[in-house]
Write a structure and sequence with these properties.
With 59 residues, this protein is mostly loops. It has a domain at 9-45. The chain is 7% helix and 10% strand. The chain is built from one helix and two strands. It has a two-stranded antiparallel ribbon with strand order 1-2. The termini are far apart. Bound molecules: zinc ion. Zinc ion binds next to loops. Zinc ion is lined by residues 19, 22, 24-25, 29, 41, 43-44.
Length: 59
């Protein structure tokens, strides 16, 4: 059947300025999940929400 294309997922790009004083992620801005994935630290990083869709740069 189809191969499970395990394409590498780039870690999110945290705001290190916010993460600097965070004790949860120790300044990394990201935390490693049990699956070994990186995700933004929910303690210091703002919720990205769904920024891909409907992001209107109205200028
Ligand atoms: Zn953090």
């Amino acid at each position: 059947m189809a191969y499970g294309a395990h394409h590498p997922v780039l870690p999110p790009h945290p705001d290190l300025g916010l993460a600097r004083d965070c004790e949860h992620c120790l300044g990394w801005g990201t935390v490693v999940t049990r699956d070994g994935d990186h995700e933004l630290c929910r303690t210091c990083q703002p919720d990205p929400g769904d920024g891909e869709s409907g992001l209107g740069f109205a200028s």
